[in-house]
Write a structure and sequence with these properties.
Acts as an important adapter that promotes epithelial cell polarity and tight junction formation via its interaction with DLG1. Involved in the assembly of protein complexes at sites of cell-cell contact. By secondary structure, this protein is an alpha/beta fold. It has nine helices and 17 strands. Helix 3 crosses helix 9. The chain is globular, with a radius of gyration of 22 Å. The structure holds guanosine-5'-monophosphate (5GP).
Length: about 350
């Protein structure tokens, strides 16, 4: 509607290059943008081509971008699909099923293009990400801290980063206590390592959508409940949560307003250089045999990161490359400081 012109902001969820667009009436008039860019909509008079500027760009001239409706239609016609097979369990303890985002063996072997693969029903290929209407949000001082979701491939160092943050300020950061149906071990206490519940109750809770994620390991269920996130936030702490990227969508609500950080591996050369003597360690415990990284692990990490980025990149608020752990940690700290003090572009539905 014309009343909105110049007042509407959108986040681009895909890359756009007018020079490569056969449909655009005039390539020179097009506006190129990258996934994640914030655009100010200047006109929606035309159903196919909107006029937009990069947010904060002083240049008063707007450029053409495909309208949401038009782009959705184009995407629907040539939807890139990726085949990803989640491994439920693995003999390597460290992978668990918590971070089991792996490539199918076929994919690894043939090294074929990610875009030629078949559809996998586990992943939400239904939504066609084009643009998301956004507005600026600043955490009110009287409001609870927020949920920070960390995603990344197995072995990228996500858990080390999480642990470093936690111990740096236990008053400020908190993590969820998972539920499990396995018997409590003698040194464990209920509500500390886990919340121990019966299989029957777990199944009921699953039915009632109480879990953000859950899985099965050695005939027991494990899962993270939505309430466990709430109880960390209720303590006025930043809740650090690491989940598989397909669960992020469900957490993006007004209540949680998650800030999503993707921890990305560096180049394979850097992985070889920096992780030579390192080991893959488990997300929950180091009791299981931590094994040295193999060349296969590195390749899988890179591929898995590529898939995550291509499928879920539009949900990431920030990307941090974990080349050197200290540098990545400092970047993470800076991001957290900004979260407290600066404004962020969030979906408009979170602003009401
Ligand atoms: P343990 O029984 O030795 O404490 O844990 C066994 C496995 O359960 C670990 O490898 C861990 O990764 C997994 N696990 C622990 N908590 C959760 C959780 O909240 N969700 C999921 N999906 N897996 C978990």
């Amino acid at each position: 509607t014309p009343a909105k012109e110049g007042k509407m902001f959108i986040k681009a969820l895909f890359d756009y290059e007018p020079n490569e667009d056969k449909a655009i009436p005039c390539k020179e008039a097009g506006l190129s943008f990258r996934k994640g860019d914030i655009l100010q909509i200047m006109s929606q008079d035309d159903a196919t081509w909107w006029q937009a500027k990069h947010e904060g760009d002083a240049n008063p001239r707007a450029g053409l971008i495909p309208s949401k409706q038009f782009q959705e239609r184009r995407f629907a016609l040539r939807r890139p699909e990726v085949q990803v097979q989640p491994l439920k369990t693995s003999n390597r303890k460290s992978s668990g099923f918590r971070r089991s985002f792996r490539l199918s063996r076929k994919d690894r072997k043939t090294n074929k293009s990610m875009y030629e693969c078949k559809k996998s029903d586990q992943y939400d290929t239904a939504d066609v990400p084009t643009y998301e209407e956004v507005g600026k949000y600043r955490r009110p001082t009287n409001e609870k801290y927020r949920l920070v979701v960390l995603v990344g491939p197995v072995g990228v160092g996500l858990n080390e980063l999480k642990r470093k943050l936690l111990i740096s300020d236990t008053q400020h950061y908190g993590v969820t206590v998972p539920h499990t149906t396995r018997p409590r071990r003698s040194q464990e206490s209920d509500g500390v390592e886990y919340i121990f519940i019966s299989k029957h109750l777990f199944e009921t809770d699953v039915q009632n959508n109480k879990f953000i994620e859950y899985g099965e390991y050695k005939n027991n269920y494990y899962g993270t409940s939505i309430d466990s996130v709430r109880s960390v936030l209720a303590k006025n702490k930043v809740c650090l949560l690491d989940v598989q990227p397909h669960t992020v969508k469900h957490l993006r609500t007004l209540e949680f307003k998650p800030f999503v950080i993707f921890i990305k591996p560096p180049s394979i050369e850097r992985l070889r250089d920096t992780r030579k003597n390192a080991k893959i360690i488990s997300s929950k415990d180091e009791k299981g045999a931590a094994k040295p990284f193999t060349e296969d692990d590195f390749q899988e990490m890179i591929k898995s990161a590529q898939i995550m980025e291509s499928q879920y990149g539009h949900l990431f608020d920030q990307v941090i490359v974990n080349d050197d752990l200290t540098t990545a940690y400092n970047e993470l700290r800076t991001a957290f400081d900004k979260l407290e003090t600066e404004t962020f572009w969030v979906p408009v539905s979170w602003l009401h």
